[in-house]
Input
Amino acid sequence: MATINIQDRTFTIEHFRVLIMGRANAGKTTILQKVCNTTDDPEIYDTKGNKAGMHTLTDAQRGDHDIAHEMIFKSNPCFIFHDSCGFEAGSEKEFESMKNFITERGNAKELEDRIHAIWQVTPF
Output
């Protein structure tokens, strides 16, 4: 039987990717701001790397977004966050979208493209 020395297997990634889940207005952005030590809003990038900032969205559109979009805070660009759509509407479409995103990212070939953590935010 072959043995593997884990210390010989060092992986480095440029970004740590986190999916944050919770209903709208649960405090997801506030928690991310605390983690990144900022009060600024994140910069939003679409799947092609084009900036699609929050300032371009109306209040009605803020809860209607693409889970694949990347949220990055200037204060801590090592984290890439993905925000799931809330499930409070009971829509099967949002749930399926989240499941597909996790499956795709979980099977990504490159380690940096995978989801490294999933955080569920539940307000008290």
